[in-house]
Task: structure prediction
Amino acid sequence: MICLRSIDRPKTDRHPYNLTLSTLPKTNTHISPIHSPPIYPSTHPPIHSMSRLTKTLTPYLLAAPQTLVFLLFLVFPIVLIFIVSFWQFNGYSMTPAFTTDNYMAIFTSKVSFLTYLNTFKYVLLVWFFCLAIAFPVAYFLAFCIESQAVQIALFLICTIPFWTSNIIRMISWIPLLGKEGLVNQFLINLGVINAPLEFLLYSDFAIVLAMVHLFTFFMIAPIFNSMMRIDRNLIAAARDMGASGFEVLKEVILPLTAPGIAIGSIFVVTLVMGEFVTVQLMGGGQSASVGKLIQTQIGSLQYPLAAANAVILLIVTLILVAAILRVVDIRKEL
Amino acid sequence: MANISRRQLLRTGLAATAMITATRCARSEAPVGTPNNPATGPQVNTNQIKDVTLRFIGTGVSQINEVKKKAEEDLGFKLNMRALSTEQNNQIAITQPGQYDIFDGEYFSLPLVIPSGNLQAIDIKRITNYDKIVPFFTSGKFNGMPVEQSQGTAPYKVQYLTGADSKEFSSTPTDYATMIPFQYNADTLGYRPDLVGRKIESWAELFNPEFKGKTSILDIPQIGIMDAAMVAEAAGLMKFGDKGNMTREEIDQITNILIERKKDGQFRAFWKTFDESVNLMSSGEVVLESMWSPAVTAVKAKGLQCVYAPLKEGYRGWGGGIGLSKNLSGVSLDAAYDYMNWMLDGWVGAFLGRQGYYSAAPETAQKFMKPEEWSFWYEGKVASTDMVDPFGKTLEKQGAKRDGGSFEERFGNIVVWNSTMKENTYLVQKWNEFIAS
Result:
């Protein structure tokens, strides 16, 4: 949280281009005048053009390592997946040939369509509940807690679930929600129900519940970040102008928090789109998502088909992200 | 840098060249035992075998530390075991041949693994106890019992290769084996007698509306489809020409039946891994499901009743064995043969027997089992003492009887084996439809 506060600098400083120029190439620009005597540039063009060349090249050289890593570990695998998605396959091997069969199989299949619909359903539900939980939590942390120490402590409490693995956290729902689980036993003992509620576990309810549990924090953090950077004077001004608490929320806080919500939404949407472990464990294998479909295909050695599905999943996810970015201009506020 | 004289440079260069030449000459390229590089004597060989490490890949069922420890003790070389899921095991066997020396897998995987050319033929003449292996694996015969006519990827159908370098299965015995079996079992439905309240005697019960929302089937297409086929046939819903090699129409029909049942809410969940099936059963989420024998044992170990039901239609069988990677040669290959011979020698067989599996060579396993263990596990007789598994856990109390009776009654009544069909790709596609519906 300290970092979050320290980001509060004038906007120009945060511009990436400015950052590179002001911090890194200093050495070159400062050293060269010392070594070379002060001469007019026109009489000694080589030296000047050299320093100018290094000046132009430096940012590219500095960006090179990351670009290489990016190419090697992100772009290259995706390109490979894209290529394999056009290959042919049988039960035990794939053949480097060009075929659109894999895509045709997916586009003509009612199952893939339904699976995508089902995945969208999860995305929508999980996104909605994450936002519904994260916004008040972040608001409470940012505006209701005065002491920074308490803020830090409470924010850290939000991260506690991340101290154990996703799978362990999911499995711990099972004894809670099961037919003979704590919730059902409690309700039966109270006399509220006669027979155990079956929808609690191995259902869409369980899947959405577990995913909200897993992903809410990815929403809390960016929203909290945005809220912390709202100039408190704006709120004071709004109040002076006679705005009610709700109006302040609607007219000041919500618009200024929008980038945080957008970033959180991107996290949640991309995570849910690719989810397959939660869907398997909490759905009891009865429900499908695109991620689980791909997993099953890989398990059956149908790599090209799985690759084609992965490519489509990637495109659909990118469209969703683009849609979010269209609604909210993140860069304006970064 | 400037201090290095030309003389020094020359001297160092010469020395380096000499050294490289010397080592190149000493390390002959030819494998040990060939004319260009003769084996110098038994002394050297035993020393070499000490340095061998055989890398196993296999499922959790057989990658057991106790077996590894005992084998290393008895054989003098090292084993490196990797426990994987059936799917991962096949994937690595087919796509990453450099990752393993020994493939410890199921027979039904062979129609996928063998055509990849990653396994080498096993020379049967080098297997000392080959004739002690249960004849079902080696000749397809078993006292005229139903197992002889069983469908699916029966081990015998994929046991032999047509030649040393062949990728084709031979329908008659040859000198070249694909795998040497070591464990197998007859699978069936497991149920909780306390929650079901009566005896389960037919596969058809899995679709009985009485158990609506309380049943489960396993979500591994090649195995799940066989269970589904047993159920559909037993319930009189459909007939198959060959359950082990279904046509597209049959696959369509059976998956439609499954989808219908799923929509009716017949199933509570589907499981993919061993522990999932144990959890489903022990938590009472399901009362009747496809199960594996050690999973039933695991439920029992939690103090719950669980029956591995002998069903009138027969069992679904599976068999596991080990095959040799194409990359094995020389001393490592010798070590691998040593291991296979050790495996059939009886100790492993007895070890497996105490868990409820069967040994490929029961005769040799018997020597390592107590008479009361033998009569309980293999003869289906009442336990005269508590039955303790190799890890020290009591599996059955004195007076208990093995579900399904004797070895012959269980194994002889396998009517279908886990299977990889010709229409495997189509099956997986339809199975996905069932799961996604």
